[in-house]
Specification:
The chain is mostly beta strands. The chain has a single domain (about 1-80), classed as Crystallins (Gamma-B Crystallin, domain 1). Helix content is about 5%, strand content about 45%. It has one helix at about 25, and strands spanning about 1-5, 10-15, 35, 40-45, 50-55, 60, 75-80. The strands form two sheets. The protein has a four-stranded antiparallel beta sheet, with no helix packed on it. A three-stranded antiparallel beta sheet has the order 5-4-7, with no helix packed on it. A hairpin with a 3-residue loop joins β1 and β2 (about 10-15). The longest helix is centred in the N-terminal third of the chain and has 5 residues, at about 25. The chain is globular, with a radius of gyration of 11 Å. The two termini are about 20 Å apart. Keywords: Eye lens protein, Repeat.
């Protein structure tokens, strides 16, 4: 999954292949506003350490993550769903 600091895939970009417990700490991004899920399924969380509101993402391009939440949620951690 590629995460972007701004909507429409702009600003800083980082590619994730595994869980990230704090976007701010690991990537020094002030916000994550868009993403491209190339494969797999992911959970995005409002708070660091996989806490707070959770959103499910399937493969696809998400140009503005604020459109998937009903309020002004910021996403601060992500976890990849893996089969066991």
């Amino acid at each position: 999954m590629r995460i972007y600091e701004r909507a429409n895939f702009e600003g800083q970009m980082h590619e994730l292949t595994d869980d990230c417990d704090s976007i701010q700490d690991h990537y020094h991004m002030s916000d994550m506003q868009s993403c491209n899920v190339m494969e797999g399924y992911w959970l995005m969380f409002e708070q660091p350490n996989y806490e707070g509101k959770m959103f499910y993402l399937k493969p696809g391009k998400y140009r503005n993550l604020k459109e998937i939440s009903s309020d002004d949620t910021r996403f601060n951690s992500v976890r990849r769903i893996t089969e066991s």
